[in-house]
Design goal:
The chain has a domain of about 170 residues: Rossmann fold. The chain has 9 helices and 8 strands. Strands 1, 2, 3, 4, 5, 6, 7 and 8 form an 8-stranded mixed beta sheet that branches. The mean pLDDT is about 95. Bound molecules: S-adenosylmethionine (SAM).
């Protein structure tokens, strides 16, 4: 079935990006080092993998067996294409799946990875639902947007409270994950380069080209404007918020 126009425009705007959210290879590697005993028998589930920027870092940095899922089939096709090109198909497989209803057997994985995607289900719901997929002593690594400073400027607070009302500060996020039965192994903020170099700079190029391509289409221009607004908010107010990387162990 062909996607509706809004979906098609969305994926047109976001096509060809190196990744689909803030993140860096160095941050993925740093988080992976916080997980003990990762080896060739480790089974990893990468949820909301997008085109697999972090999946490829995981595959490159460890001998683990990785299943990566996303609900957007072109992302999955792209990642499986990369796995074939890199001769990784014996231990990296991407599948179309919905993170709301994952049908893997209980205890199928040692490690769940989720960069910039758990917000789609909510941190607490994701951690509670996905726990059954982990073996005892399994780990979860995730990134989530957090307030860095109290009292963000009104325009910044209005943007984030509108886009993602669940945003909170890091201390509140850590309390929330502990209340879901996880121990915090470690956490650190993503650097500013994760937002600009790895995500918004390429996205800004896409927005500019998309505006030209869809010059006389009001719905496309409105979508581009929303995206531009998000980037402009980051330029103006990034000191107030950031992504936090959390590595957790099932308690
Ligand atoms: C912000 S992107 C992050 C992608 C990637 N992890 C990265 O950091 O580049 C969020 C991803 O979640 C995927 N997604 C959204 N809702 C989903 C769902 N219900 N099930 C599976 N994937 C979903 C999107 O297609 C997208 O690839």
């Amino acid at each position: 079935m062909a996607p509706d126009r809004a979906t098609a425009l969305f994926f047109d705007l976001f096509s060809g990006l190196p990744r689909q959210g803030p993140g860096t290879a160095a941050s993925t590697r740093r988080a992976l080092r916080l997980v003990p005993g990762v080896g060739s028998r480790t089974r990893v589930l990468d949820i909301g993998c997008g085109t697999g920027a972090q999946t490829q870092v995981l595959a490159d940095s460890s001998p683990a067996r990785i299943v990566a899922i996303d609900n957007h089939p072109p992302f999955i096709d792209a990642l499986n294409g990369e796995a074939r090109r890199l001769n990784l198909t014996d231990r990296l497989e991407a599948r179309v799946a919905d993170m709301h209803s994952l049908d893997f057997a209980d205890g199928s994985f040692d490690l769940i990875w989720c960069e910039g995607a758990i917000y789609n289900v909510g941190v607490e719901a994701g951690l509670r639902d996905w726990r059954r997929l982990l073996r005892r002593d399994g780990h979860v690594a995730l990134t989530e947007v957090c307030w860095n400073k109290p009292e963000p400027r009104a325009e910044c607070a209005a943007f984030w409270n509108g886009e993602y009302p669940a945003i909170r500060d890091t201390a509140a996020l850590l309390r929330a994950v502990e209340s879901c039965g996880y121990e915090v192994v470690g956490h650190f903020p993503l650097p500013a380069s994760a937002w600009w170099d790895d995500y918004y700079r390429p996205l800004q190029d896409n927005v500019t080209a998309f505006r030209k391509r869809h010059r006389d289409e009001p719905d496309a221009q409105e979508l581009a404007e929303q995206c531009q607004h998000e980037i402009d908010i980051w330029h103006a107010y990034s000191e107030f918020y950031g992504y936090e990387f959390l590595v957790l162990r099932v308690g």
